[in-house]
Design goal:
Layout: E1 4-6, E2 10-14, E3 32-34, E4 37-40, E5 53-58, E6 63-66, E7 69-72, E8 85-90, E9 94-97, E10 99-103, E11 110-114, E12 116-119, E13 123-128, E14 136-139, E15 141-144, E16 148-153, E17 159-161, E18 164-166, H1 170-176, E19 181-187, E20 192-194, E21 197-199
Parallel strand pairs: 1-4, 2-5, 3-6, 4-7, 5-8, 6-9, 7-12, 8-13, 9-14, 12-15, 13-16, 14-17, 15-18, 16-19, 17-20, 18-21
Antiparallel strand pairs: 10-11
């Protein structure tokens, strides 16, 4: 909780793993990040490298991110398509949500949230799945000045709700690639995409 990862090629990487209890029964992954900051603020120590992904997940289940920030604030060193990915998930299920600050009554169980936040990246979240059992949940999360907010490929039954997308870098993309967007569900089915806000100030 509350950690900061700064100016790394990859901040955190999960390789294929199945969590089992002592009886050999598969149980949910216990990994979670709360109010953690993943950021790029300038060139990396090896100038030939750039941010690959703040978090890379490969064949893992139920990784939680609550009130976390993923950002690249160095918008001069790196072209838009080289600013990295916030979360790159391959056959992995993730939950990215705001963090509840004040617990309310039963009819409004959380009075205020600290949203998760993705800013200045090539992709906020990129989820590609060959297994139809993997999907993503993104709720109460802000996407600001990213080339592409969320890309999903085959991430069936994904939920993207109550998020805001301030799509950025339109001038750059008009020259090199016009396909900037907030959400692009490339393939799959069973998506729930509701109560999101889309705009651009860039």
């Amino acid at each position: 909780d509350g950690a900061t990862f700064r100016n790394n090629h990859i901040d955190v990487e999960f390789t294929p793993y199945t969590n089992e209890n002592l009886g050999g029964i598969i149980v949910p992954n216990a990994s979670a990040f709360r109010e953690t900051t993943f950021e790029t603020t300038g060139p990396l120590n090896n100038p030939s490298l750039f941010l690959d992904a703040h978090v890379k997940l490969n064949v893992v289940d139920d990784i939680y991110f609550q009130g976390c920030t993923f950002r690249n604030t160095d918008l001069t060193t790196f072209d838009t398509h080289l600013r990295g990915v916030g979360i790159r998930a391959t056959d992995a299920s993730i939950r990215v949500t705001g963090k509840c600050n004040i617990v309310g009554p039963w009819w409004n169980p959380c009075a205020t949230y600290t949203p998760s936040h993705f800013e200045g990246l090539s992709y906020g979240i990129r989820a590609e799945d060959s297994n139809p059992m993997y999907g993503i949940v993104v709720n109460k999360t802000d996407f600001v000045n990213n080339w592409r907010g969320i890309l999903t490929k085959g991430a069936n039954y994904s939920d993207i709700t109550e998020c805001s997308f301030d799509v950025g870098e339109t001038a750059f993309n008009a020259v090199k690639d016009p396909s900037y967007y907030g959400i692009y569900p490339y393939s799959g089915w069973g998506y729930k995409i509701e109560e999101n806000i889309f705009l651009t100030n860039y």
